[in-house]
């Protein structure tokens, strides 16, 4: 048993940030970058856009739906062995996908097995990172989350280059080897016992969090946004080609969006810790900007306009991710943040499973991506409406566990013995 302590806000925590950087790079970073192989897979399997989109959808949905399994296992056995096992499974999944001879095999390997490995690796890492920081949590999250954008920026053109020389099978083999770096990342997750942690686990899944109004609204909102949030990274390369842009330039559009994403995550992490605005306001604002940008993608008629929209999307999506991961510990308390991360990822699986296939189906039916972007933007904007139900600055009471940390809106609040009853609860 480790002696309880306060979040170190540094020290070994910076190595945990490195682990978070690797987890973001080798899960969502790779998932975004594989979009450059989209047209290759359509041609190789003589499939429709919607059929190939199911590969990404299954991987994303499995990663998110199985995240509570990863966080529960890390609560029981520790994050280190769980994350390392996840890295091994995801690498094996991508390795097996390189030998696929049918879409069904691709669904099982690159979709299910890889997604399961990512579930064991991502949520436990990010939950552990939240426990290592308090006053500098947004900065730490921003640094870790830049792995997503920087990897997408570097890998999109690189995978296109490798695919031109080694085809899509060779590209997946190289990606499989790269994913093995999740193992040393998991080894960096040293256990940490904090003051305020419950002396005994009552439930390793902690599903009671879903009954809390604040977390319930947050989970519902993330489920809605997931239906449109990933649309550009799945279809942006193909959309660029449909506009007559040559393949390497189309891949660069994805890379530029990823670079804007990474820079925005870092800058937002620095600014959010200053509490200039309540985090819940930032959450709604950045999410609304993501949805509005998606609605404008069909208006792109040139390479320059597509680049501009890609930068706006990347910046707003990256800013939202940083604020979202910083808000979550303040909604549920630091002692429950690991399980809350897993449950939140599980709620996103609903939208993640719906979004890419629906986007591909709309493209097949209409002949272009206009409806795909419009529907995706509508889902994201609906999520903004749900986020408005989060605890507001005018609330006079803290949520459960809020006594452990600053208020979600950045102002001290006095606890109330009985919270006011609301007519609408989520």
TrEMBL record:
**The Major facilitator superfamily (MFS) profile domain, residue ranges:** 13-395
Ordered alphabetically, the record's keywords are:
Membrane, Transmembrane, Transmembrane helix
Primary site of residence: membrane
Matching entries from Pfam families are given as: MFS_1
Give the record's membrane topology: Multi-pass membrane protein
User: Gene3D superfamilies, from UniProt?
Assistant: MFS general substrate transporter like domains (1.20.1250.20)
Location of this chain's protein in the cell = Membrane
Which segments cross the bilayer?
12-31, 82-100, 106-127, 139-159, 171-193, 214-236, 248-268, 280-300, 306-328, 340-359, 371-390
- List the coiled-coil residues: none
Q: What's this protein's name?
A: Monocarboxylate transporter 11
Q: Which organism is it from?
A: Pantherophis guttatus (Corn snake)
């Amino acid at each position: 048993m480790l002696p309880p302590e306060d979040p170190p806000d540094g020290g070994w925590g910076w190595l945990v940030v490195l682990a978070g950087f690797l987890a973001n790079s080798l899960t969502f970073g790779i998932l975004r970058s594989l979009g450059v192989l989209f047209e290759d897979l359509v041609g190789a399997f003589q499939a429709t856009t919607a059929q190939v989109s199911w590969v990404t959808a299954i991987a994303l949905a499995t990663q998110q739906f199985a995240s509570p399994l990863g966080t529960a296992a890390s609560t029981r056995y520790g994050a280190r062995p769980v994350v390392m096992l996840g890295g091994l499974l995801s690498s094996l999944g991508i390795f097996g996908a390189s030998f696929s001879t049918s879409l069904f095999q691709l669904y099982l390997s690159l979709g299910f097995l890889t997604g399961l490995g990512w579930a064991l690796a991502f949520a436990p890492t990010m939950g552990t990172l939240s426990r290592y920081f308090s006053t500098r949590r947004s900065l730490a999250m921003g640094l870790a989350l830049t792995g997503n954008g920087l990897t997408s920026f570097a890998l999109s053109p690189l995978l296109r280059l490798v695919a031109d020389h080694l085809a899509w099978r060779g590209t997946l083999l190289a990606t499989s080897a790269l994913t093995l770096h999740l193992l040393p990342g998991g080894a960096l997750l040293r256990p940490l016992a904090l003051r305020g942690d419950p002396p005994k686990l009552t439930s390793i899944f902690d599903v009671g969090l879903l009954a809390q109004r604040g977390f319930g609204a947050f989970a519902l909102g993330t489920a809605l946004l997931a239906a449109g949030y990933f649309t550009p990274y799945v279809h942006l390369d193909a959309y660029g080609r449909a506009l007559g842009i040559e393949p390497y330039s189309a891949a660069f559009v994805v890379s530029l969006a990823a670079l804007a994403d990474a820079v925005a995550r870092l800058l937002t992490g620095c600014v959010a810790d200053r509490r200039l605005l309540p985090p819940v306001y930032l959450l709604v604002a950045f999410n609304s900007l993501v949805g509005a940008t998606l609605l404008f993608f069909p208006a792109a008629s040139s390479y320059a306009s597509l680049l501009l929209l890609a930068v706006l999307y990347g910046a707003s999506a990256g800013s939202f991710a940083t604020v979202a991961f910083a808000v979550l510990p303040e909604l549920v308390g630091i002692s429950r943040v690991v399980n809350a991360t897993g449950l939140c990822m599980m709620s996103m699986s609903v939208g993640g499973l719906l979004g890419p296939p629906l986007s591909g189906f709309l493209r097949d039916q209409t002949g272009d991506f206009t409806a795909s972007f419009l529907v995706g933007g509508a889902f994201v904007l609906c999520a903004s409406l749900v986020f408005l139900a989060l605890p507001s600055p005018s609330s006079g009471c803290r949520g459960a566990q809020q006594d452990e940390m600053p208020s979600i809106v950045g102002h001290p609040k006095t606890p109330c013995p009985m919270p006011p009853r609301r007519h609408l609860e989520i």
